[in-house]
Specification:
Layout (H helix, E strand, L loop, with lengths): L1 H18 L20 H8 L11 H14 L8 E8 L10 E5 L3 E2 L6 E3 L9 E6 L5 E10 L5 E6 L5 E5 L7 E10 L5 E7 L3 E11 L1
Antiparallel strand pairs: 1-11, 2-5, 3-4, 4-11, 5-10, 6-9, 6-11, 7-8, 7-10
Length: 212
């Protein structure tokens, strides 16, 4: 029986060998060229955006903006300003009472000098918080350096509910520009100022000056 099985197996192998092609072509495997990964320093150069510097408003530009706002409120013209606090994305904290806070920011550029915010439709959406302790009661000029889209509507309000201002900037020709507000504080208690917009925007720095 064993011999018979071996005989049949030999016949089967012979049949396969007889019907097999004389030469089997093997398709060569193409090895991909080695990919060079960037070094850490090269990747950092790509991920780091060059800091953007927006020129500050000069004294005449400040007065022009202030007096336009005061005229709308039927208040007397200002004669000048006294800088009180300057805060930036690069230096967001001066003290416990004078500082920046970011609520639901879209992006904080680690190696840059700005913070990006998404559009905000409701209180509690993506917004910038400015903590400020006024040195005296009176009117103050809030000047923010930002990047924005044309027609963006910005809203500013204070936590005491005494300042609520919405302004549209349809004509501003530059993406990088200043948005300004005149706020009133009745005393020297610490204030919380919130800024939000109906489109995405980018914050660089702000200055709060007392209006004389």
């Amino acid at each position: 029986m064993t011999r018979k099985i071996l005989y049949l197996a030999a016949l089967l192998i012979s049949s396969i060998a007889a019907n097999a092609p004389a030469q089997i072509k093997i398709r060569p495997i193409r090895v991909p060229t080695q990919i060079k990964l960037p070094t850490a320093s090269e990747a950092a150069k790509v991920l780091t955006r060059q800091n953007i510097r927006i020129a500050p408003l000069d004294d005449s530009e400040k007065l022009e903006s202030i007096n336009e706002s005061l005229q709308e409120k039927n208040l007397p013209k200002a004669t000048g300003t006294t800088p009180s606090v300057r805060l930036s994305a690069a230096n967001p904290i001066l003290s416990d009472e004078n500082r920046l806070g970011y609520f639901k920011p879209w992006n904080v550029l680690v190696n840059g000098n700005s913070v990006q915010f998404s559009e905000a439709k409701y209180f509690g959406d993506s917004s910038l918080y400015v903590g400020f302790k006024p040195p005296a009661a009176g009117n103050y000029f809030l000047d923010l350096s930002v990047a924005k889209y044309s027609g963006t509507k910005f809203t500013v309000f204070t936590m005491d509910g005494k300042n609520l201002i919405t302004q549209n900037y349809p004509q501003a020709p530059d993406k990088y520009t200043h948005i300004t507000f005149v706020l009133n504080f009745a005393d020297t208690s610490s204030q919380g100022i919130t800024i939000l917009a109906d489109q995405g925007w980018e914050f660089f720095d702000c200055e709060i000056s007392r209006i004389n």
